[in-house]
Amino acid sequence: MLKQGLELKQTQKLSPLQIQTIKLIELPIQELEQRVRKELEENPVLDEDLPKEKEDEGETPREVSLSEYKEDDAIPSYRLRTDNYSKEERPQYSTFSVKESFTQSLQEQLGYRQLTEHQYAVASFLIGSLDDDGYLRRGLDNIVDDLSFRANIETTEEELLEMLKVIQEFEPAGVGARDLRECLLIQIRNFKKTPDVEVAVKILKNHFHEFTSKHYQKIMTRMNITEDQLRGAISKILKLNPSPGGQIDDSYSDQAQQIVPDFVLEYQDGELKLSMPRFSIPELRVNRKYAELLMDAANSSEREKKEAAAFVKKKLDSAKWFVEAIKQRHNTLSSTMQAIVDYQRDYFIDGDEAHLKPMVLKDIAEKTGYDISTISRVVNSKYIETHFGIYSLKYFFSEGLENQDGEEVSTRELKKALLECVESEDKHKPLTDDELVVKMTEKGYKVARRTIAKYRDQLGIPKARLRKEI
């Protein structure tokens, strides 16, 4: 049986300005520049301001400011320029260096091979199927189907394997492997044939599981080799690269070709000075003809003029919201970063991780008065340049635990101390998690065994048995 009734709900609808601001806050500085340029291209009302000296010299017609247009529901006044930005056309940014991409390098090497057009297409598709670390982890049967449905290319597993063997000859050595064992074997076969190399090949081919589990005694027994022979073979294996794709910096992508810091923090005369990189955001103005169109249409009864005026008014509103959102974005980012700097002042002075205090998004939200979701958007994909390096804003956030003196220390500091314990251990008798608890206690940190195991996993540190060396 259906029942009908009335239910009163209270909902909050975001204004166009709020929506615009939220979207802009999420953008790092480079994407913001692209967004501004896109808005200039798509909104015919907007023009990029020209410096006065250039305007006087040229024959560019006079522009009319948006604020000159008035009507019954007049557009509220707002600042068309944010005072924080420079008029410099192309600012000089500090960026991370960018090398040739992994995929580009392989495609270039493929171009030197004498292949048919069909073989080239198959091999190119294989290259595009590799993971970031250079492995092909998808089954050849699945790739056969993908080539058929997505690229309309008919092939077989045999042909795929043939083209994969071609790719496995490329640099960096080991690329195109389907697992770690194959990756290491591809590399070591390029080594000069020595007794150590021959033993290493046999270990990888026949005793790989025992090797990765560090069951060295089993290997020596089954292969009937001495400890010195095993040690020599392992020394060769350890020179191999388990992640060949990582040899080439793949930070060059379609989405972001370089990383530009959104903030710059300088330490001068005992003071921390925060700034945002100079960025050319043009002053926005409306063409004179659009203003005249609105003014003429204000008292006109002509339908076409009224419709044209409505169109221009819509674009004017869009321009107003966009510029105001740019201003609010700057204020939000500036306030948030300043709060982080104030919170972590001791750390930003010298960059010592021991001075990095536990800090979560809620801490900064309380200091700034913004929502946690806003702080999260500010922190996401943003970077700061300091006198000791360039860091993602996410780097400064971590939970905390108490030390023996009852002081709260960051998990980052605890992980650093744990790593130091592991690095200084006797590799012939690695420290167990229980022994690491004792070592951390000696350093003044109260950490449970399960916490040690958790941090060890996060740091990529294997268990004691797997850290053992002969």
Structure description:
The radius of gyration is 31 Å and the shape is flat. It contains 21 helices and 8 strands. It folds into 3 domains: 20-98 and 258-396, no CATH class; 102-247, no CATH class; 400-467, Arc Repressor Mutant, subunit A (Orthogonal Bundle), CATH 1.10.10.60. It has a 4-stranded mixed β-sheet with strand order 3-2-5-6. The longest helix is centred in the last third of the chain and has 41 residues, at 303-343. Helix 1 crosses helix 14 (303-343) and helix 14 (303-343) crosses helix 16 (361-368). It is of the alpha+beta class and 470 residues long. Helices cover 49% and strands 7% of the residues. It has helices at 16-26, 29-42, 52-57, 102-110, 117-128, 140-150, 157-167, 180-188, 195-206, 208-212, 216-223, 227-237, 288-298, 303-343, 345-350, 361-368, 372-379, 411-423, 433-442, 449-458, 464-467, and strands at 46-48, 263-268, 271-275, 284-286, 383-386, 389-392, 400-402, 408-410.
Top keywords for this entry?
single chain, about 475 residues, alpha+beta, Arc Repressor Mutant, subunit A, 4-stranded mixed sheet, two-stranded antiparallel sheet, about 50% helix, about 5% strand
